[in-house]
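Re: that chain you flagged

S.,

Sorry for the slow reply, it's been a week of failed gels. I finally had a moment to sit down with the sequence you sent. For the record, here it is as I used it:
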Amino acid sequence: MAMVMNLSKGEQGENDGFIIEIEKKETKTITFKLDVPLLQRIDEVINRLNRSLNNPFVSRSDFIRHALDFKLQKLRSRSGTEFK
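Prediction finished late last night. Pasting the structure tokens below so you have them in one place:
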């Protein structure tokens, strides 16, 4: 059984460029694919953050993890549903 959450539209309608596909299995693994233009945008944002922060190192994986967590929290609050 697969559940697809399309997170391609942001709050203002901008394209985020990624889709999360969750397959219900014994493990709680989430696999997602990011296209090259989105990775380039992420790298640009990370470079800007790293230049402007006092503690200048944000990794790509940390950035993606926080972005996904933010999107999932918004989905939970809108739908009132728990993703387990």
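What I noticed first: The beta strands are 2-6, 18-23, 30-34.

Talk soon,
D.
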